[in-house]
Write a structure and sequence with these properties.
Blueprint: E1 2-9, E2 51-55, E3 67-71, E4 74-75, E5 108-111, E6 118-128, E7 133-143, E8 151-158, E9 187-194, E10 223-227, E11 230-231, E12 234-235, E13 238-243, E14 252-253, E15 273-280, E16 287-293, E17 304-310, E18 318-326, E19 333-342, E20 350-356, E21 371-380, E22 386-392, E23 397-400, E24 406-407, E25 412-420, H1 423-427, E26 431-441, E27 444-447, E28 451-455, E29 464-472, E30 480-482, E31 486-495, E32 501-507, E33 519-521, H2 524-527, E34 535-539, E35 543-544, H3 547-552, E36 555-566, E37 587-589
Parallel strand pairs: 7-14, 30-37
Antiparallel strand pairs: 1-36, 2-19, 3-6, 4-5, 5-19, 6-18, 7-15, 7-19, 8-9, 8-18, 9-10, 10-13, 11-12, 15-16, 16-17, 20-21, 21-25, 22-24, 22-26, 23-25, 26-27, 26-28, 29-31, 31-34, 31-35, 32-33, 32-36
Region (Disordered): 560-590
Pfam families: DUF7507
Domain DUF7507: 349-440, 461-571
Length: 590
Amino acid sequence: MARARAVHAARPETDGPRRPLVRRIAATVVAALAATLLVTLPAQPATAATQLIAESFGNANVPDPAWKPLGSACLTRATTAPPSGSSTLGICSSRTLAPAAATTPGSLQLTDNRGNATGGVVYDTAIPANGGLDIRFDQYQYGTATSGADGIGFFLADGGVSLTGAGAAGSALGYSQAGTIPGVNGGYLGVGLDAYGGFSTAAGGGANGACTTLPFSTLRPNAIALRGPGQGTAGYCYLTGATLPTGKTLRGVATNGTNGTANTAAAPGADLGRSIRITVSSARLPVVTVYHGQTAGLADSGLTQVLQYTMTTPAPSSFKLGYVGSTGGQTDAHLIRNVRVSSIDDLRALNLVKQIDRTVAQPAAYVEGSVIPYQFVLTNTAGVLLLNPTVTDPNATGISCPVAVGIIVGGSMTCTGQHRVTAAEALAGPFVNTATASALNVLIPVTSNQSTVTAPIATPAPALSLEKVGVLTDSNGNGRADVGERIAYTFTARNTGNVSLEQVAVTDPRVSGITPATATLTPTTASAAGIGTSTATFTAAPYTVTQADVNAGTTLVNTATANGRTLAGPPPPPPRPPPPSRSTTARPSR
């Protein structure tokens, strides 16, 4: 209930919303003044873990445009600009202690052996997380000195964000923040292959007062460490880490017989490389396991488990990934080869991940009238081209997919849609929404798994304000209200809360004939989208000043009230007696 009042002086002339049950909201709101589903046969699950990414980086170009270069990253075999439609990874402008263009096989060069260099790549296409991830690659960190820096960072980010850059360089290894330099957008997991040892210290990030696990106070070289979720300059906390056992290293020392010196034409041998395997289970709180092999190209049997950690933050529905290498006063060449990413669990032939689109920053919770943007990530694991992919979501509108005949083998497609929160949903708690997808395997229909996403809904906070304005018809122009003169009142009620209010009514004991009798007011988030109105103006029959008003010789308190209810509330109670309030004044004269 909202109150507003006008005060007229009668003094002598000598004075100058899984959906839970609807949450019930209190009846009275008080505020102070002032797509048809295609019926198909069920798709058969894949018979083995599904390959999601396979890139050797051994050729002169990378066909998949999802690989985006950062800084000095390049392809050692590239001699011409990349062809149209492929990744923009191109020619290396510097090759200090790195392979020449004629060298086979080629590599992804993050940095060569120069000081203060940074380079990386991001894979800016979402890959599903619902089957877990098994990530394998060969990494090369080497120089001619017995120690080098800084290391190579691998990271996973929320697949719903736009991943066009990495975090801070140096000890942060492209994942964490450093001072005012933000960490990777939507970061979920950073794995530091930390030759120098800074990733395990405060210099590696997370020194923002919000981390419960403190990093090491001194360098911890030759270690593999994990850092957790972060956004901007917050988070990226150190989780766990381990120094490699005796005889195991992350980097190698190049000699003339192995790789020569500056601008060598030779490729680094397997003894300068290390096999890395990272698994992220499909659990809601994934188990992360990291393995190390002392040379490149090792089978699983040749790897040693270095660490294992259970995440305490739920994994996003999909991931994007990246690599970053950097040097400082100490240097190494940093190369990557033979990246292979697969699921751990079986996936459907057409796999669907539905998620909130976070390419634009989203609120912590949605309110009535706000739009929840969705992404639908479709991945083809069928082994054949899937034609005419379609997304079905009964609660989403504007579903749109990239213009394409189908999804290539191993490829992904991201469709988009949205849902506007209704008045009933705003009262019902978290909004749970499920989608499916379908496609054609030649002429045989293929149906995806169901994929569900839950959007947080803000706690209902109904609120109502009332503004009252009185206009005196001053017939004799003396600036005072005389007997028989009339005061016309208007009342403006505003919904200042986050849910709709119905049966909003205004009551004023001194006037009658208030119209309209009631109104329904939507919150501003809804009215701004063209849904209803958040304000209503009420009028009443004019009040006529009486002789008693003038004879009283005191101010006349005239208070109006407004009340209403949410869509879940009972009828409003009778208005309460008006308390004192701010006033407007007209002075009647005798």
